[in-house]
Specification:
By secondary structure, this protein is of the alpha/beta class. The protein has 5 helices and 5 strands. The chain has helices at residues 23-28, 57-63, 92-105, 126-147, 160-171; strands at residues 2-4, 36-39, 50-53, 68-74, 107-114. Helix 1 links the parallel strand 1 (2-4) and strand 2. Helix 3 runs parallel beside helix 4 and helix 4 packs antiparallel against helix 5. The termini are far apart.
């Protein structure tokens, strides 16, 4: 498993619970998971099967010991994304390169992407709408990398947020 995350999500949770900060501890307990490779973490915690690595294909190749790999992306690892958990140091082009490399050299059996920005009120403010639209660029880059060679396409769709931003600009709000 290759995880791109700003945090080492392997903290202890209360008995019977799994949280966004503890889920890797449960994954490490699964017998079919050989290793968890954490890329982009600014925390260094200890957990069996967990190793830290840079976003470097040569290093990753030496750590991945199976032909199949699961990929987890938390956008808080990226410096280009705005999330509720801050921004990391990993550059989006580096992440995209690593994803494309993983797809070329391993069978990617699954992917999850999390770390979307959450507006604070029932309706996003103009600033929040701008953040959501900027993050859509990150989402599209990830989608294009993950669907490359599959015949599927990722397109910017007419988005409610872009319509609201454009309408507010026209009215000078």
């Amino acid at each position: 498993m290759v995880v791109f995350d700003r945090h080492a999500d392997c903290h202890q949770a209360p008995h019977g619970y799994v949280s966004c900060g503890s889920w890797l501890r449960d994954v490490a307990a699964l017998p079919k998971v050989a290793r968890i490779i954490l890329v982009g973490s600014q925390e260094k915690l200890t957990l069996p099967k967990l190793v830290y690595a840079p976003c470097n294909p040569a290093v990753l190749a030496g750590l991945i010991s199976t032909p199949r790999v699961y990929v987890s992306v938390d956008k808080d690892a990226l410096r280009e994304a705005v999330t509720d958990w801050g921004s990391g140091r990993l550059a989006l082009p580096s992440l995209v390169s690593c994803l494309l490399w993983l797809k070329r050299h391993y069978r990617v059996v699954g992917v999850d992407v999390c770390g979307e920005y959450t507006p604070r009120g029932p309706w996003p403010s103009r600033g929040e709408l701008a953040v959501i639209l900027a993050n859509e660029g990150v989402n599209l880059a990830l989608c294009r990398a993950l669907t490359a060679g599959t015949g599927r396409s990722c397109r910017r769709r007419k988005h409610f947020c872009s319509q609201v931003v454009n309408a507010r600009r026209k009215r000078g709000i």
